[in-house]
Amino acid sequence: MTTQTPISLDEEVRLYTSNAEREKYNLLATLFGIIVALDYLERAYVRDSITAVEYSPACTRLLSQYKTMLKLVEDDVPSIEEFMASYRMDHPAALHRIRVGVPATVEHSSEAGPETAKWVAATTQSFITLMDALKLNMRAKDQLHSLLQELVTGFARFKGSKDWEGRSKMVSWLITLNGMKASEELTEEQARQFFFDVDHAYAEFFRSLGGGKDDDPS
């Protein structure tokens, strides 16, 4: 008679048996979390719990993160609808926003005005794209110049931006890049400082839109 090993009901069930499987489930869990966060954000905006200028950057960032995550799990996620069905996710507001691909302030008129909402979304996306490029160790002028130029151009659309410390720092970095050859790269120390300045400029931009509140844009 074969003796079976008793199963402990208190033992944690492991979803993976290898590092590759663990990474896959971590990525899927991150995607799940982004969808949930986006749904909460949409509902908060509809209920007027947050303003349009607070909503737009947060929504743009979540949509950007969603697109990035979807690329990383595309082999395991045929479609977002199938993913949500598989994990029994009842988040229609998030699904609608994902399908539209832009914040509600851009899709519809808002208290901030359609043009202002578009500018907020576009400038937020410029911040995110530039920071992601630096995180991916892009250092050459021809990799960063156009991204930074687009960001500086976006700043100019906002009243009072000329007084923002972050804008002046971005202009200084643009001058630095302008003085480099196309293939020339920033040093590691320069790249770290550049990311630090961009991150702080983004936080200042978000606070300025929110009327000076000390909110965290992430």
From TrEMBL:
**Role according to the record:** Component of the ESCRT-I complex (endosomal sorting complex required for transport I), a regulator of vesicular trafficking process.
Matching Pfam families: VPS28 (PF03997)
Gene Ontology CC entries for this record: ESCRT I complex; late endosome membrane
Residue span(s) of domain VPS28 N-terminal: 2-108
User: Which top-level group of life is the source organism from?
Assistant: Eukaryota
InterPro entries the UniProt entry points to: ESCRT_assembly_dom, Vps28, VPS28_C, VPS28_C_sf, VPS28_N, VPS28_N_sf
Q: Which PROSITE patterns match?
A: VPS28_C, VPS28_N
* Limits of the VPS28 C-terminal domain: 115-210
Per its UniProt record, what PANTHER family does this chain match?
VACUOLAR PROTEIN SORTING 28, ISOFORM 2 VPS28, VACUOLAR PROTEIN SORTING-ASSOCIATED PROTEIN 28 HOMOLOG
Q: Where in the cell is it found?
A: Late endosome membrane
- Name the family the entry cites: Belongs to the VPS28 family.
Recall the GO molecular function terms of this protein's record.
protein-containing complex binding
Alphabetized UniProt keyword annotations: Endosome, Protein transport, Transport
Key word Protein transport present = yes
Membrane topology per the entry is: Peripheral membrane protein
Protein name, per record: Vacuolar protein sorting-associated protein 28
In the record, biological process GO terms are:
protein transport to vacuole involved in ubiquitin-dependent protein catabolic process via the multivesicular body sorting pathway
